[in-house]
Amino acid sequence: MSGLLTKTQLAAIADQITEIEKTTDAEIVTVLAKQADDYYYIPTLWAAMAGVIAPSALLLLPHWLVLSEILLIQVSLFGVLALLLAQPGLTPALDSQACSALAGEQPGAQAIP
């Protein structure tokens, strides 16, 4: 943990945990990590949703596409989008400020002094 928190912050966390543990039988264990997950599945999920939804709209259009052509379009769209969205420069990564803002809105979340 040498670089993530200062000694003052570690002491503040320890004090808060001690206070909370006085009022409960539970033991609080803290974990500090720079990143919880790489979220590699998110671009693939977006590609899968686009691959299913976008070509399905072709069924509503008055084109004379057979089902096998629509399936080919779906698979191709999924493949292209999965490859494109997997590139690190093309998709926005989770921003630490956005994550901090979300953590601040969660019930029971406390900021480290």
> So what's the overall shape?
elongated
Per DSSP E runs of 2 or more residues, the count of β-strands stands at 0
The number of helical elements comes to: 4
Low-confidence segments, ≥5 residues, pLDDT <50? Answer: 93-99
Written overview of the protein:
The protein has helices at residues 7-22, 41-56, 67-85, 96-105. With 113 residues, the protein is mostly helical. Helix 2 (41-56) packs antiparallel against helix 3 (67-85). The protein has four helices and no strands. The longest helix is centred in the last third of the chain and has 19 residues, at 67-85. It folds into two domains: 1-34; 37-105, no CATH class.
List the main descriptive attributes of the protein structure presented here.
single chain, 113 residues, mainly alpha, 2 domains, 54% helix
Quick structural gist:
The chain is mostly helical.
SSE topology:
Layout: H1 7-22, H2 41-56, H3 67-85, H4 96-105
Helix pairs in contact: 2-3
